[in-house]
Predict the 3D structure of the following.
Amino acid sequence: MTQQSSVANTLPLALSQGDPAGVGPQASLMAWEAFKDSTDTSFYVRGHVDTHKARAEQFCPSSAIVEISDPSEAQSAFRHGLPIIDIPSFPVTAGTPDVATGAAITNSIRLCVEDVWQGRAGGVTTNPISKSLLKSAGFKHPGHTEYLAELAGEFAGTDTPRPIMMLVGGGLRVALATIHVPLMSVGTLLTSALIEDVADIVLRALNKDFGLENARLGVAGLNPHAGEDGMLGAEDGAIIAPAINELNKAGNTVIGPRPGDTVFHEMLTGSYDAVLAMYHDQGLIPVKTLDIWGGVNVTLGLPFIRTSPDHGTAYDAAARGAVKVDSLIAAMKLAKSMAVHRASWEAQNG
């Protein structure tokens, strides 16, 4: 292990609180229970301490909480309880969202990113938010992914990078060419340049963050049977195929366009290291079908590591205390692995 990857392995992960009325607080406590004896993974929450204490008393009586003031205290505090850096907010009941918490929710995300940017955390894992609640509170982004990209540009003093959404679970890694857009808009948004750009980001991330040299990328077609030689749509031949040709001319291994009903099976049987899907549901359906509770959302193309559980706020489950923590645990394990791979890559490549 290089010196940089060793440092990355000791830095805690920064965990945002998500919507405090959702599953985030209880899931964070349950994740601490799962990791408390770990020798290589620690984390802390940027969130409302009193809300987490209330969830612990209500649903996780065996959990402990340690209030800290700086990320540097997280590792030593971790074995004693879930470390939390307080964000003043309003008390909420599990399962009952309140728009008044909107500022604290977004502030938690921002502070976690700032911690990573300043080298105080190894990566960011975000608990679920409600897009509709945040929109009511003045949030102007379609979701976490786009907001994180804006923060990356702000902290770096550059243009906003293109964020790429990848889902990991059930033996699949699936990236999306388009994200939170209506299905009827996908065909008009796809261009060869877009596909080349997205694929390039995915391939670089597979090398840098997943440790996969010479990665193979399968590309799903847009139309049934990948267009059936133009009989079922022109986009596969006119837009996707030329992009793949250019990517392969640059020395990459990109295969497609492949029919959407077989490309994921082909990855599961070893043909690819990742798949590029053309739109949201094309990519998410196979991952969630294979691993509904343990899937992970990864944002590629950012100058920092970001993962999240692949589910929403689940207010109804939060109200009952019926929280599943598998996806959050998987998200933090993946963030830690990616941080170590990235540090090792940077040490070797500068």
The domain at 1-162+313-350 is CATH 3.40.718.10 (Isopropylmalate Dehydrogenase). Residues 293 and 327 are 6 Å apart (CA to CA).
